[in-house]
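Question thread 4412

I'm putting together a teaching handout and wanted feedback from people who do this every day. The idea is simple: show students a protein as raw sequence, then show them the structure tokens that encode its fold, then repeat with a second protein so they can compare. Below is the first pair exactly as I plan to print it.
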Amino acid sequence: MTTGLILALLAVLLAFGMPLFFALGIASAAYFWAVGIDLALLAQRMTASVDSFLILAIPFFYLAGELMNACRLTERIVDMSKALVGHIHGGLGQVNILASMIFSGMSGSATADTTALGSVLIPAMKKEGYPAPFSAAVTVASAMVGPIIPPSVALVIYGALANVSIGRLLLAGIIPGLVIILSQMVFTYFYARAKGFPRYPRADFPTVVRATKRGAAAILFPVIIVGGILSGVFTPTEAAAVAVAYALFLSAFVYRNVSAGEIWRVFQSVSLGSVRILVIIAVASAFSWIMVREQVPQVIATGLGTVSDSSIVVLFIIIGMLLVVGLFMVASSAEIVLTPILVPVILAFGIDPVHFGVLMVFSLIIGGGTPPVGVLLFIAQDIAEISFGQMVRAMLPFYIPLFAAVALLALFPQLTLFLPNLVFG
């Protein structure tokens, strides 16, 4: 009874537009008061959840990505992608997709990907004759790989909340990221061919070499992170700090195109963004303790067990639920709230938590490209200067490769687990 009232209170607060931190905090405090637990324990739960060496990776990865963005590598990435895939049917659409994969290795954020690449590629695609809605849609769809390919703040958050190896999670995102990108490139190939969209002549070898050299810094960014973790040189948190040092080195000594004032503004922005994430993690950890105390995961597991005892069926049911949640909640907020609740459920059915983490992040991020809350849709719509209705209609075909990728990753866990098992056993 108490649990139902607390969940109802949380739903009401969120429905009235209260920020997630305050909604979770009020609901948690109400529970502690109702059952007679000292509120000091609530504060202890909150502080303990963020007093972690692993959590340091979150602000470091944020900072590294923002510093790389400040280096204005976007145009170099676009030029390199154009030389590599611009000749394939779809032309700039294919460039957009490949550039998103490379850019995700710097930012780890779908929002940053949509904003940075969209501001360059959407106007360029419109100028070369591509319909504005298609240009916006391919940008949104390709940006969804951002939180999957390392470095991924979303996977770090999941690992911290689920008590799963961050190194395994970062490795687990590589092949799924390629699956997502390839599914979109194949779809765009046939779609663009049917529509007669333009493409570039094949670039000669010297052009490819020059373009690759100019964009090499972006490629090296995830290589340093993953390579360092694989070789055992540093932990994921230390890798994030090394990534910041690399980004600062590029800014100060290689490109020299970032002023001290810009770097200071990046530090300010990242500090505020990190605090927002950390305070939500803190209060969500207290809320998840309540859910565990009230045996909510066990109730969910029992309910799912009455539907089917097949782990695949249960996994698809949970994915469906996550896709629905993504329609109404920002992915990062939904991940923080649901991870502690769902991980005990999937463990009860023998589902690997690393495999589930990648699926959970991707399923929720698809919500960023779906109405009514889809933040990515609003960003791309604004850049493309189209109506929201045009944006949504243009996205409909792109859900085909996105859902196909989700299904492939769910049905074939080894796509996710091959690299982590190969390296860590």
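The second pair follows. I'd like the answer to focus on this one:
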Amino acid sequence: MFDYPLPRICVASGSSGSGKTTLTCGILRALINRKYRPAAFKCGPDYIDPLFHREAVGAYSSNLDLFFCNEETVIRLLYENTQARDIAVLEGVMGFYDGLGGTTTEAGTWHLARVTQTPVILIENCAGLSVSVAARIKGLAEFRKDSHIRGVVLSRIRENLYPGLKALIEKETGLEVFGYLPFLEDWVIESRHLGLVTAEELGDLKEKIGRWAYGIEQYLDLDGIIRLAQSAPPLRVTDESGLFPEMNEAPLVPVRLGIARDRAFCFYYEDSLNLFKKMGAELVFFSPLADQGLPAGLDGLYLGGGYPELYAAPLADNRGMREDIRNALQSGMPGIAECGGFMYLHRTLEDSKGTRYPMADIFPGSCVKKDRPVRFGYAAYTARSDNLLCPRGGVFRGHEFHYWDSDCPGDDFIAVKPVGGETWSAGRAAASLYAGFPHLHFYSAPAMARRFLERCKTWSLSHG
């Protein structure tokens, strides 16, 4: 193990919808404007907020998830993703202490702040409140002795009320108030069924975040926030060779892995893609929307999640791509299809208006819209038989969040909720294909990534 100095802060709140993403993006852009090189991280499994951090703000971003990964791995990923960066901003999830199952703190924002020893800034919504805000902040700060809460930003507060409330909060809690964000329509991000819209869909987002950064400089003590970040203690980092025995094996060179990436397929954990590269894969990105066929010379396919239901018509119109993917998978080329990618492999896909469109036709059924999220949340998935990703009895951890469901979801895995023990059958798996709704984080099981790439290498040699 070794010590690694890293200035860092965590942006958190007592509840969802308080403005964590707005504050995080504004701070990141303001830091960039000051010539810092920030890295951003999202607590938990959300793959949309990091899109904002990367595409709209220009900061490298990835996930830190304590359900997918153990504590040593999370610290290692924080270290690896801040090389050539000089400050890190961690964005929390839900309420500060909210964790697995709604009854624990595990894998929540406080858990991450504790593991990474990161100073926390609370952003608290003051709409309709005054003195009660101080009581709420005090309760959050003292609920755990090691809360790591060191400061506060107030949101949705009138300018004339701020000085008095700042003085009251600092007196009652001992925490520094770093400023406030007034209620402005321009500080709101549109939402829809999967949460925040993707960065590409807000044409003026970069300009909007530029205005947020100006507001950060105007209304917040950014110098004080930077000093707080610089007060974070060094990280205790475990050597990679001790954490991941798979990394001690020779790279699987060459393995050309095709990654579907466009507006319809945009949900990937960046660390999973980086792990594939470390193990010897060349990542070849392609667009099922725009490209007329698969790139030449691929050894495997990875179809990630996204919004294929929003682009069902153009996906259907691209017959050449649908046929190429169907032919590749039917020939035995190894493939992984998560959530949106799984939906694309059905015979038909229903859009939000109920119209059905032809897809890749690997599976005979259809994916249709439901009235509420289907099988939402984390689960552990145990294989009923040997397959592309793992042997019989092998387990991986995944996360589901989807409003569309399949009439042939598969039963090759037994899914178990981490709290409460609810079970169901899930996923379709064979020697050369894994497909299902769970999103996978391959640092939760690096052996699974290695097994997949080895199958890709074997297929390449047999079809060379």
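Top answer:
Good format. For the second protein you could add a caption like this: The first helix runs from residue 20 to 33. Residues 49 and 152 are 22 Å apart (CA to CA).
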